[in-house]
Amino acid sequence: MQLSREEVTRIAWLARLALSEEETTRFAGQLSGVLAHVQRLAELNVDDIEPTAMAAEAEGNVVRADVPRPASPQDEILANAADTEAGAFRVRAILEETA
Prior knowledge:
Layout: H1 5-14, H2 21-42, H3 74-78, E1 84-85, E2 88-89
Antiparallel strand pairs: 1-2
Helix pairs in contact: 1-2
């Protein structure tokens, strides 16, 4: 499937990307290649393959049990903070109000 420049422009707009003319042309080819590869994968017969959670079997349980446990002491958690206030992390404001 060959994507047109208009389709790439639309995809870029949806992703909120500003592409130059050169990038639009380059990405049209690259995205078309990706779609062609996905199409080839879709043609594979996987009827005899059991669904798995992992591609390769891992030894032992790779996910720890979700067991409640006490939190670390607050002073220990805040020990490496750049700034604290009233027992909490203090961070610089990152949002500005604009008129």
